Amino acid sequence: MMNNPKIVLSGTSNQPLAESVCRYLNMKLGNAEISCFPDGEKLIRLESDVRGCDVFVIQSTCAPVDQNLVELLIFLDCLRRASATRVTAVVPYFGYARQDRKDAGRVPITAKLMANLITSAGANRVLSIDLHAKQLQGFFDIPVDHLTAEPVMVRYLAQKKMADLTVVAPDVGNMKTASRYATALGAELAIIHKRRLTGQEVLCEEIIGNVEGRNIVMVDDMISTAGTICGAARMAKERGAQKIVVGATHGVFAEPAIERLTEAPIDEIVVTDTIPIEAAAERLKKLKILSVASLLGEAIRRIHSNESLSSMFEHFGKII
């Protein structure tokens, strides 16, 4: 166990989640004054003494992405200059993870840039949940602890006890994730072949597997514009599917996601609180929000105590 005291701090992007994490850890959230100069520049002043401490700063880089990212970088620099022994950037939702390669000429690899910025700002390690591109772990020259919200989602879905269940991967890239869900839920597996037309439009071409007369669960790491998940749900319904439940770790809900999800033949949408989505919940009545506070809290406890994180996922739902 690390002898240095443990302190958890929060940026402004998702303070309710940080408070829930602290409740799990049975400790108080550290104090920091976050304000802006008249021209909009961010100022962070620590009110908790962090000298010699093991510090965890929780900040999702969700919308407004650039503002929340800069706030995280300033927080990290502030902690380093305040002589924290170790600083862990806890980024439940990691923005810019989709830009992980050059898929066209003259474009940046922004995910690598974000890794460089976070490291240079003063982070000693990073803790995140369901990165859109798992290879992002290799972009960092510091340890990255990559969690998954699958135990949280599986426990909730298992409690629903849906009969004749098929887990549908909304695209081929999601096949391994869908296979793990199918195994955990004792369900069959189907895959949708899609073709992306634009950044917001996708065309679902074929379903590999049987969905007729079946209850359907579709899972993804995020719902952004909802084009993929809604197209997949419509195709499944056309092929005779019964109840359709979709799940995602990150509810990004960029426009026109809410409108699409409202109109789609989806019975329930399940996301976690890695991103604050109270506004979306008011507009989307079929939305269910699960908390990852205990998942993050247990990971923070284990990191501080130098215990294994991988053992958290040996049995889904063990600590959740």
Describe the structure using short key phrases.
single chain; Rossmann fold; 5-stranded parallel β-sheet; 14 strands; globular
Short description:
With about 325 residues, the protein is α/β, with parallel strands linked by helices. The protein contains nine helices and 14 strands.
Model description:
- The chain contains 9 helices and 14 strands.
- By secondary structure, it is α/β, with parallel strands linked by helices.
- The protein has a 7-stranded mixed β-sheet, with helices on both faces.
- Helix 1 crosses helix 9.
- The C terminus is likely disordered.
Q: What secondary-structure arrangement, pairings included, does this model have?
A:
Blueprint (H helix, E strand, L loop, with lengths): L5 E5 L4 H11 L6 E5 L5 E5 L7 E5 L6 H17 L4 E6 L18 H12 L3 E5 L14 E4 L2 H11 L4 E5 L5 H11 L2 E9 L5 E7 L6 E9 L3 H12 L5 E8 L5 H7 L4 E5 L5 H6 L3 E4 L2 H13 L15
Helix pairs in contact: 1-9
Helicity range: 25-40%
Count of beta strands = 14
Number of helices: 9
Tell the overall outline: globular
